[in-house]
Amino acid sequence: MIYDDSKNYILDSQDWWVPTNAPPPVRKCVPGQDKTDATGPTRSQYFPDGTSAASADECCSICLNKAADCLAWVWATDGSNSCWPLAGWGDTTDAPNRMLGVV
How would you class 79 by CB atoms within 10 Å of its CB: exposed for 0-12, middle for 13-18, buried for 19 or more? Predict the structure, then answer.
């Protein structure tokens, strides 16, 4: 058997293969992981200094609807209402006052 990958492409660095004619993945807000932060983050070009959000849900909504390059978000759970939409990140780490979510 010969494997023909001419109709596929690499989606990301983890070598996920997706047919080129597949519809784009559905982005949606899912609950974030409490007490978790991103390491090596790349902030969204739309919010290079972060932004303010009253809740994790609002932070996710900003990422999903206002930053086309956003793949994840970090929300401060310390009452500061800080929100950082992220275009990428390296890994995760424990952080007592953070919540990390992906879209």
Answer: exposed
